[in-house]
Structures are given as structure tokens and as C-alpha cells.
Amino acid sequence: MTLTGSQIAQLLDALLAAYPRRDDLRMMVRVELGENLDAIAGGDTLRAVAFSLIEWAQRTGRTDELIAGARRDNPGNPALEAFAAALDPGTIDPPISPPMPVPPPPTVAAFLRRQKEERLRVLMAQYEAGSQQLLSTLNAVDRPPLQERLRRLEVEMAALQAEIDESKSDASGEAGCD
Predict the structure, then answer these.
(1) Based on C-alpha coordinates, what's the Rg of the chain?
(2) Is 178 strand, coil or helix?
(3) What is the pLDDT of residues 41-72, one digit of tens each?
């Protein structure tokens, strides 16, 4: 689901009302979305983090999941319910009670691979932001440091992707040995 500007503002206000502490929001994101809030949404204030979380959800096509997860985690919250009611009735799933069962813990290798994949997503977002900054930079003096930063990000992303690919092939090779 793609939200309009006013819907983004309403969701932001609803999340801030439902999660007045960063730790509460962090726990909801981990439990309901299986993601690390610090890895996917940055910002100095809770408002900036929540806005960044909404942008991430929009970018990754997980807006419905974010809304449904917040409603499951905080059932009956008036701000979240009002936001959901303001949306088109068929656009999101109603909150599910009881919560979905937690999957079994991943193996150490799978956990490490997931951490690397999260880091790769963060690097990709930084690269995208740096590329946009480079495109909009008119001052020639500012361009070489930006280009160098992008080059370093490319190298780090390539190395991380190689590690992820290697761990996937190792995992498939181990699975075939059983």
C-alpha cells in the first residue's frame, strides 16, 4: 500500500501516540516485522525514527504489515484504530489476536547471514542517499569526497554480498549432505 502525504502524517502521529518510547517501537518492529529498528530506520528523535520507519515500509512494500503489526502489538489503541478506520476498509487486515506464533530461533549461520543482509540494506540506503546528494551537488570541491564515499560503499557492499552468497551456498551444501 502506498500512503498519501496526509496518510503518512496520520500514521506518524498514530505511531508516536501508540509508542511514546523508542524501546517500545523497537520491540514492536522486532516482534511484528522481524526487523532491527536501528538497522532500518535512523534519526535523532523518536519522530524522525518513526518517519524513517514509515519510509522504509513504503520502500519495501511492507506498509500493510507495519500497520497490522502495530495494531496487533497494541490492540485497541485509539490512535492506531482511528488511523485504520480512516483508511479504506479493505486495505489492511484487521488485528489478529492472539499474536502469530514465534518461529523457532534460526541457526547461528542463518542469524549471522540475516545480520549481514540487514547491514547490506543499510549500506544500500546510504549509497542511494549519497548518489542523490552527488547528483544535486553543484560545488565541484564537494564532489570528490562524495565520489570516494560512494566508492567505499560499493566496495563494502560487494564484499558483504559475496559473504552472503558464500554463506547461502554453504548452507545449501550442508543441507544436501544430510
Answers:
(1) 19
(2) coil
(3) 988 999 999 999 999 999 999 999 999 999 99
